[in-house]
Design goal:
The structure is a homodimer of 272-residue chains. Chain A is of the alpha/beta class. The first copy, chain A, contains 12 helices and 10 strands. In chain A, the strands form 2 sheets. Chain A has a 6-stranded parallel sheet, with helices on both faces. In chain A, helix 10 links the parallel strand 7 and strand 8. In chain A, helix 5 packs across helix 11. Chain A is globular. The model of chain A has no long low-confidence stretch (mean pLDDT 92). At the A-B interface, helix 4, helix 5 and helix 11 of A face helix 4, helix 5 and helix 11 of B.
């Protein structure tokens, strides 16, 4: 049982590359096509209608590349557009919210989970709902940390400035009466700050990351649907962006080093 | 996006009913067909060829009922027959081993996991492999506890005899230098002993149960593949056995109480 077609990844920008990196590490035989809609990022401030329309346009680009499954590696799109997208495409469509929520529920022992994310993600309560869906007895403390994505986009991943911003961002979850034992990183940018975050929250709080949990859910999806790639064939990887190729490449290089896949420019239907 | 067809469940006998119970609790709109191959249970002592042949015959019965997905709620069949079964049927086929292994890895903080199961399951090292696949840095201590299934089949789920058997069965995992912080119940019969097991291992060891984790994986599978049932239609449930209907009904009644689905006799191709 094998299927050599690539897996499609979609994000509003570069954050989903943390999911891609985890998938390539874990599923080395799989080919991938990544599309970042950088020309229209961020999706956070967009209306739901816009997010749905942009997401569909981007998934059309992936569908034209004959992908066997699609990962919506964008929290905003996962929270708003998934049911529509699943109606529109025949292939399985995996989001990042449910895998992250499921992993956090399993990781927590005292049933108190903290969630951080962008303003749009926290406002949508998508993680709150997905966690309650998994176990209604879990307490969920949600907290928006909009100052973290700009750090990552600027390449500031460690050092005293990063620690200072993180300490202030996480204080409301750590110092209050929440007593969380698990922190869910509800944004695909945040795994790039994982070491700094772990150092601040300490060893008693498990840090759960949607990149790793989505890669695990994808491995299961491929297995259950008999879609795994054959092992004898060298995989191919390509990254597409609707925005500036050079800017995209800087962040891809930082994440993948010398093994960074080629980056190509692409136009989604409505994008510049 | 909805699909009113039932989900098929297959087990060598009655153990998989714990998975079914968890699925009905969690996905109340889904219809189900459960098939227990009681006439040929247990599968543990069978050859791999027999397990594969029996499993295919049973899944043919489910396929005739137009199921939209199949859960192989039998550890032995999950460990031995899944790749063959996925080749043979178009619908997604979910086993119990990977969901349980993934849940245990997420639940563990010190990366030391104990696994109990039947002789056949422990001998197959299926959980060991699935755990290492998820995270190679986890220590796995496997231990066969063949004395537990007979307890459950005899309806002995609590009391001093049960505690005594459990204490002796679990001692090698609890008293040695394993330092496990997570115990994975690698047999679908064991969730019936969950309260007694929890009391013995104490609050510092998380007990992970393949019934709950498989139900969670099934919820994700239906969502990702756009196969969830519509919410306005009353679901239907039926239980089939190749063996004695009255004996099957006794255990189904114990698990489901007054809401136990009807039990019907069925002949799988080769079964009595």
């Amino acid at each position: 049982v094998s299927d050599a077609r690539p897996i499609g990844f979609f994000d509003s920008g570069v954050g989903g590359l943390t999911v891609l990196r985890e998938v390539i590490r874990r599923l080395p035989h799989e080919s991938t096509v990544y599309l970042g809609d950088n020309a229209r990022a961020p999706y956070g401030p967009r209306s739901d209608e816009e997010v749905r329309a942009f997401s569909s346009e981007c998934l059309d680009v992936l569908a034209e590349r004959d992908v066997k499954a699609i990962v919506v590696a964008c929290n905003t799109s996962s929270a708003v557009a998934l049911p529509d997208l699943r109606l529109r495409y025949d292939v399985p469509v995996l989001g990042v919210v449910r895998p992250g929520a499921t992993a956090a529920v399993l990781a927590s022992r005292n049933r108190r989970i903290g969630v951080i994310g962008t303003n749009a993600t926290i406002r949508s309560h998508a993680y709150f709902q997905a966690i309650k869906d998994e176990n209604p007895f879990v307490d969920v403390a949600e907290h928006a940390t909009p100052e973290l994505v700009p750090l990552v986009e600027a390449g500031q991943l460690e050092g005293p400035v990063v620690d200072d911003v993180l300490r202030r961002s996480l204080a409301p979850l750590l110092e209050s009466g929440h007593s969380i034992d698990t922190l869910l990183l509800g944004c695909t940018h945040y795994p790039l700050l994982l070491h700094a975050i772990r150092a601040i929250v300490g060893p008693d709080i498990a840090v759960v990351d949607t990149a790793a949990s989505t890669a695990s859910a994808l491995a299961s999806l491929l297995e259950v649907n008999a879609l795994a790639a054959p092992t004898g064939v060298a995989p191919g990887h390509v990254q597409l962006t609707t925005g500036d190729v050079a800017a995209f490449r800087v962040i891809a290089d930082r994440l993948f080093g010398e093994s960074a896949p080629p980056v190509e420019s692409v136009a989604a239907a409505g994008a510049a």
